[in-house]
């Protein structure tokens, strides 16, 4: 016969039950608080959020999701993600692509996904889908929709403004180049042809698109400083005096002084200043050498020599491409950058590069 519990034992048991009940109440209270915090967080976010379990039933969603995707209350009340997806499909610009992405996620439930979708009314959303797991077990998916229409519109306007500024910059550069050429009719088109060759050399050398563009612009105005040289000296048919040649040699500094105050995204002023420098230090105006000369200037220097020698000048007839290429070949690694020389020779000998005729 079982021994009856004593009064003290019964009292302890009642106390244990009371404590257990109190713990459960506190746990439930904490759970309710956590749920309330999560719900408040869900409702306060600017993104539309919907949580779906692995069976395709909507577990939770916020009001923002319903507002952004303009889903009727009756559709949300059904808590069926297929109905919700179908309603969204009716609004997107390309429902076929949207449906395919959704299908891919159902085939790979553990995959993360993010893309941009456009609605027929012009709104643009960033859609994100993240798998939810308890431990390693997949239990559902969280969808988020963020309205990025305004930011995309601003991005488009910024790109259009950038394109317009680039066009304006190119127009200004061309106007400056033409101003120089108007003073020196014998070398009309020289800067443009040097720019064409410099761009081709830079491309052959594998430089970045931005760097190539900067080289093209610098080459287009590399003789800008000649605007400070008297026109009669520029077009003099005979041999220049030492003083006159000194004025010609000052043109890189003249161009630099004009350009140095302009904040280009490329080293335009330095390229103009250094385009007559040589690797061995025998160039001008500063007599700097090797790595002191920026690569942009080294490329323009090779292009300048080849174009000048192959073209007619007031004091001599055109010497031709072969003599020009022979000159840079002899000076390879001594006066001229070897990579630029190799690229230039390859352009003419292998790629059939030709200068455009004067316009």
CATH topology name of the largest domain, in short, is Hypothetical protein af1432
The pLDDT mean sits at 84
Tally of extended strands?
5
Helix segment tally: 15
Element order: H for helix, E for strand: HEEHHHHEEEHHHHHHHHHH
Strands of the largest sheet, in order across it?
2-1-5-4-3
Oligomer: single chain
Unreliable segments of 5+ consecutive residues = none
* Distance linking N and C termini: 122 Å
Domain module count: 2
* Biggest sheet architecture: 5 strands, antiparallel
CATH class of the largest domain: Mainly Alpha
Please identify which CATH superfamily of the largest domain we are dealing with: Hypothetical protein af1432
Anisotropy-based shape: elongated
Give the proportion of residues in helices.
55-70%
CATH architect. name of the largest domain: Orthogonal Bundle
Radius of gyration (CA) equals 37 Å
Structural class: alpha+beta
The percentage of residues in β strands lies in 5-15%
Secondary-structure blueprint of this entry?
Blueprint: H1 7-44, E1 48-53, E2 58-61, H2 63-68, H3 73-77, H4 81-89, H5 95-107, E3 113-118, E4 124-134, E5 137-147, H6 149-183, H7 190-204, H8 209-220, H9 231-234, H10 242-249, H11 251-259, H12 268-274, H13 295-310, H14 321-330, H15 338-349
Antiparallel strand pairs: 1-2, 1-5, 3-4, 4-5
């Amino acid at each position: 016969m079982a021994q009856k519990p004593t009064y003290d034992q019964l009292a302890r048991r009642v106390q244990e039950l009371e404590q257990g009940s109190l713990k459960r109440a506190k746990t439930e209270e904490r759970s309710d608080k956590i749920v309330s915090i999560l719900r408040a967080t869900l409702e306060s976010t600017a993104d539309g959020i919907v949580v779906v379990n692995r069976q395709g039933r909507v577990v939770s969603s916020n009001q923002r999701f319903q507002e952004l995707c303009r889903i009727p209350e009756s559709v949300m009340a059904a808590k069926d993600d297929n109905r919700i997806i179908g309603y969204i499909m009716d609004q997107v610009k390309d429902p076929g692509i949207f449906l395919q992405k959704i299908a891919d996620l159902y085939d790979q439930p553990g995959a993360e996904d993010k893309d941009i979708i456009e609605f027929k009314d012009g709104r643009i959303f960033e859609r994100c889908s993240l798998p939810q797991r308890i431990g390693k077990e997949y239990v559902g998916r969280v969808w988020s929709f963020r309205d990025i229409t305004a930011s995309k519109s601003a991005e488009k306007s910024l790109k259009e403004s950038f394109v317009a500024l680039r066009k304006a910059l190119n127009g200004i550069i061309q106007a400056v180049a033409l101003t120089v050429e108007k003073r020196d009719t014998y070398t009309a088109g020289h800067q443009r042809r040097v720019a064409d060759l410099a761009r081709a050399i830079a491309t052959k050398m594998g430089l970045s698109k931005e760097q190539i563009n900067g080289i093209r612009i610098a080459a287009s105005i590399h003789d800008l400083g000649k605007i400070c040289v008297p026109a009669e000296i520029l077009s003099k048919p005979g041999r220049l005096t030492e003083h006159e040649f000194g004025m010609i040699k000052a043109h890189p500094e003249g161009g630099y002084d004009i350009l140095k105050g302009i904040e280009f995204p490329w080293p335009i002023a330095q390229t103009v200043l250094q385009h007559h420098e040589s690797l061995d230090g025998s160039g001008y105006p500063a007599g700097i050498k090797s790595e002191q000369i920026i690569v942009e200037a080294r490329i323009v220097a090779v292009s300048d020599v080849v174009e000048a020698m192959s073209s007619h000048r007031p004091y001599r007839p055109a010497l031709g491409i072969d003599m020009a290429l022979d000159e840079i070949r002899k000076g390879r690694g001594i006066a001229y950058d070897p990579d630029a020389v190799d690229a230039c020779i390859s352009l003419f000998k292998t790629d059939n590069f030709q200068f455009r005729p004067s316009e």
